[in-house]
Amino acid sequence: MTDEELEVVMDGIRQAEAVREELAVAMSGVGVLLPSLGLDVPTVAACHAVPLIDLGRCNLETARRLAAVLRDAGTAR
User: Fold this and answer.
1) Measured between alpha carbons, how far is 36 from 63 in angstroms, rounded to an integer?
2) More confident residue, 77 or 46
3) CA–CA separation, 27 vs 34, rounded Å?
4) Cα–Cα distance for residue pair 77/71, rounded to 1 Å
5) What is the pTM of this model?
6) In whole angstroms, what is the distance from residue 50 CA to residue 36 CA?
7) Is 61 helix (H, G, I), strand (E, B) or coil?
8) How confident is the model at residue 1 (pLDDT cuts 50, 70, 90)?
9) Which H/E stretch holds residue 54?
């Protein structure tokens, strides 16, 4: 991998980390915590230019809270 290719990959990782943090803060603001929220390791390890964000797993209470927040947001539009 060239230095330029590596920089593209690293930039993608930095962007994905920033978006993951933005999502975590937004969800926290409405009382939702996804404890496994992070970057998708296989896409980071495979050096994809744009890694995926892994929403992870959550318990039933968290899933219900997330569903309620999404429903409320949908009806507010």
Assistant:
1) 13
2) 46
3) 8
4) 10
5) 0.82
6) 19
7) helix
8) confident
9) strand 53-54
Query: CA 63, CA 69: separation in Å to the nearest integer?
Result: 10
CA angle at 33 for the pair 63 and 49, rounded to the nearest 5°: 100
Query: Within 13 A of 42's CA, how many CA atoms are on the CB side?
Result: 1
Structure-token pair, residue 42: 């296989």
Taking CA atoms, 68 is separated from 48, 64, 73, in Å, by 34, 6, 8
The CA distance from 66 to 63, in Å, is 5
Distance from CA of residue 61 to its chain's centroid? 19
User: H-type helices in the chain, by residue range?
Assistant: 3-29, 41-45, 60-76
Joined together, the tokens standing for residue 60 give 């039933």
What is the domain partition of the chain in residue ranges?
Answer: 3-76
Q: How far apart are CA 27 and CA 44, in angstroms?
A: 23
Residue 13's identity, in one-letter code, is I
